[in-house]
UniProtKB/TrEMBL annotation:
It comes from Tetrapyrgos nigripes. One of its GO terms (molecular function) is metal ion binding. This is Peptidase S53 domain-containing protein. The keyword Signal applies. Ca(2+) binds at residues 516-517, 535, 537. CDD domains: Peptidases_S53, Pro-peptidase_S53.
Length: 556
């Protein structure tokens, strides 16, 4: 049995060894960066301003956990489908006793008393400290920065240090050098484009009216999504909500009445609150993205229990609650089998260390059998939102190899939507599961866009689905692909088989289960971006899904 460290006992032991006048330790720079172009310096904060910081402790064996993740997720592996338990994951992702002791002692000898373990595996140490003490502790200079476009302010630093003898115990101190732009989600529309594919090549089709307005019936026709209700109550689909985007039960009722009359209009969802998240009802509380996500998950994953996870603003994780939601789900004995998120960041805003640490959190969930799907972004090759740029801007979590990134298509014949973000990570290397198809694409691409992206990085998106002209009870757009995997999970559970879990090795092993998208591109940064081509491409991934083929690939 895995022993969970008693943080209080360890902290007490560490405190006992603290001397009255500790010797100043030799310091080493942990992270540094330049001022991001979207932020400007705004002076020095008041010395007594409280900072809520977290130390990310080194995790015991993330390489071992990654190996275990691929073992349980790769078809043909002797371990396929044998998802890890919370206890087994903890044995990989938890910190060592030595790391807890070392960091606790350092904080206490510098007068920090507000020390709290955090994270699903006690792999973070949280503490509060005034700016002047943080400057001393980290040998740094915290400053005020303002986001030029929105006026939002952050207290951050461009460089910080930790004791040299702690480098082996600490991944990062956060939030320090991460400059996260405010999360936004605004409708982005482009006119449908005629494709080169035809309905007979697809074997499935939809009426031409779906070129103008995409409804549940369009998606059912295009991808073969069944209307047969799911029956397994243990099969949960999670929809994450951020930035006060709230889903309306009245709008869902109207949506189902109009567009899924075969379903009960009383079908609804449950609510889970994180960081003080709420879900108020009423016309003034309706959120475009939240309504879209809920209406198309409930309205297409017929009968699958759906939970709306509302992440509030009562958080200090520095990334709008993205760390807190994953920590919360990692700590649950039975997290949702599928989680969808329609938000993300530009990878460079986080920095490589924080991006890697957050990706580790997705790895732990994936190893436990959770399928994580994230929208790739709405800015083409210019990032999560359209912006001026020279080099292409990868997004996060899109570049994390442990999640499934979803791009966008449009039109009945399906071409790449030009807003579909895709490209190559500057942080994460290319995983084995996509090595062959990405190499094929890059060879065909030749010198196009040379020098504007990292040709050795993890390519994304992995798959795509309709993301334009989607009809909801308000207005919206975003791919609605995750429902297929929830419906497949329902049938796997009914057959006594394990759920799909981390999807990518399964998806890349079965390219025949997707409709290949070969037209369109994702322009940005003054270029045409990447062109869609036969096979995988960094606009639409492997293509859009064929439910019957995916079901067959899953052995059903």
């Amino acid at each position: 049995m895995v022993h969970i460290l008693s943080f209080a006992a360890l902290a007490s032991a560490a405190f006992a060894s603290v001397t009255a006048t500790p010797t100043r330790r030799a310091m080493a720079v942990a992270e540094q960066r330049k001022v991001p172009g979207s932020f400007a310096r705004a002076g020095k904060p008041d010395a007594e301003t409280t900072l809520n910081l977290r130390v990310a402790l080194k995790q015991k064996d993330m390489q071992g956990l990654e190996k275990a993740l691929y073992g349980v997720s790769t078809p043909g592996s002797s371990l396929y489908g044998q998802h890890l338990s919370l206890e087994e994951v903890t044995s990989f992702a938890g910190p060592t006793e030595e790391s807890v002791n070392a960091v606790t002692q350092w904080l206490q000898e510098n007068g920090v008393t507000d020390i709290t373990p955090s994270g699903a595996f006690n792999d973070w140490i949280s503490f509060s400290i005034p700016v002047f003490k943080a400057d001393e502790l980290l040998d740094t200079n915290f400053e005020d920065f303002v986001h030029i476009e929105t006026g939002d302010r952050l207290v951050r630093t461009l460089q910080y240090s930790i004791p040299q003898d702690l480098m082996q115990h600490v991944d990062l101190v956060h939030p320090t050098t991460a400059f996260i732009k405010p999360l936004v989600k605004t409708p982005v529309m482009s006119a449908p484009v005629a494709g080169t594919a035809n309905v007979t090549e697809r074997a499935l089709g939809a009426p031409s009216s779906c070129n103008s307005v995409v409804t549940p019936a369009c998606l059912q026709s295009l991808y073969g999504i069944p209307a047969t209700p799911a029956i397994q109550s243990s099969n949960i689909l999670g929809v994450s909500g951020f930035i006060n985007q709230w889903a309306q039960t009245a709008d869902l009722r109207t949506f189902l009445t109009a567009l899924r009359p075969d379903m009960s209009s009383a079908t609804t969802f449950t609510l889970q609150s994180i960081d003080g998240g709420v879900n108020p009802q009423g016309a003034n509380s309706a959120g475009i993205e939240a309504n879209l996500d809920i209406q198309y998950t409930v309205g297409l994953a017929t009968g699958v229990p759906t939970v709306f996870i509302s992440v509030g603003e009562n958080n200090s994780d520095g990334v709008s609650g993205f760390i807190d939601i994953i920590d919360t789900l990692n700590a649950e004995p039975a997290p949702p089998q599928v989680l969808t998120t329609s938000y993300g960041f530009n990878e460079g805003d986080l920095g490589s260390t924080l991006a890697t640490r957050m990706c580790n959190g997705y790895t732990t969930l994936g190893a436990r059998g959770v399928s994580l799907l994230f929208s790739s972004g709405d800015g083409g090759v210019s990032g999560s939102q359209s912006q001026s740029c020279t080099n292409f801007v990868p997004t996060f979590p899109g570049g994390c190899p442990s999640i499934t990134s979803v791009g966008a298509t449009q039109g009945v014949d399906e071409v790449a939507a030009d807003l579909s973000t895709g490209g190559f990570s500057n942080v994460f290397s290319r995983p084995d599961y996509q090595s062959s198809v990405v190499t094929t694409y890059l060879n065909a691409l030749g010198s196009t866009n040379s020098g504007k992206f990292n040709a050795n990085g993890r390519g994304f998106p992995d798959v795509a689905a309709q993301g334009e002209n989607v009809e909801i009870e308000l207005l919206a757009l975003v791919p609605s692909l995750l429902v297929l995997f929830s419906l497949i999970n329902d049938r796997l559970i009914a057959a006594g088989k394990p759920v799909l879990g981390f999807l990518n090795p399964f998806l890349y092993a079965n390219p025949q289960a997707f409709f290949d998208i070969t037209s369109g591109s994702n322009p940005g940064c003054g270029t045409n971006g990447f062109p869609a081509r036969s096979g995988w491409d960094p606009v639409t991934g492997l293509g859009s899904p064929n439910f019957a083929a995916l079901l067959s690939a899953a052995g059903l």
